Amino acid sequence: MTAPDTEANTGATPAKSRDNTSSKRKFPVLVLLPLVVFAALAALFLFQLTLGGDPQKIPSALINKPAPEFDLPPVEGLLADGAQVPGFGHADFAGKISVVNVFASWCVPCRQEHPLLEDLAKVDGIQLLGINYKDKPENARRFLGSLGNPYDRIGADTAGRTAIEWGVYGVPETFIVDAKGMIRYKFIGPLSPSTYTEVFLPELEKVMAGG
């Protein structure tokens, strides 16, 4: 006669089955944990940007450092006075004070600040450069054709790699680069009439004065 199965008779769960049950209970927690952490960090960042802090106080490791090495092609088919608007790269900073504005046709705040960039383009002693971020050439041409093109040069950052090297959080962002190619100031978000006159222009004047 075959010996009785003790675990089956007593109703005990085999060890292997107990291990599988335990793993199944823990698995969803391990999967959700990174999502919970990410959501918490995203919420903290959003709070800092909107309710809890000034986005201009977000530190940038590039301030008072050389601008990244890059060379962006022009926006295909974008013309001014019948000629292609040139792209630009690091070499174009030499000997000139530059304002670099990161923009995109799909960016609603970019439309809001655009009149201020047109005003900025009239400031003597600077060149206004645009980084067209993750945009299609036809959309960029339509955007600037509708609103006007205040830029001296525009580089097409189709893949967004150059913007990452500049430490861009999101469009629009605006940088001031001195005549030695050093990033001296960074403004996060769209310029408004008040921040343009009370914050950005004083910072630009400081750089132009050699401060």
From TrEMBL:
PROSITE patterns: THIOREDOXIN_1, THIOREDOXIN_2
Keyword Transmembrane: yes
Any Pfam family matching the protein: Redoxin
Keyword annotations from UniProtKB, A to Z: Cytochrome c-type biogenesis, Disulfide bond, Membrane, Redox-active center, Transmembrane, Transmembrane helix
Similarity comment text for this entry: Belongs to the thioredoxin family. DsbE subfamily.
NCBIfam families: dsbE
UniProt-recorded name of the protein: DsbE family thiol:disulfide interchange protein
Organism: Roseibium sediminicola
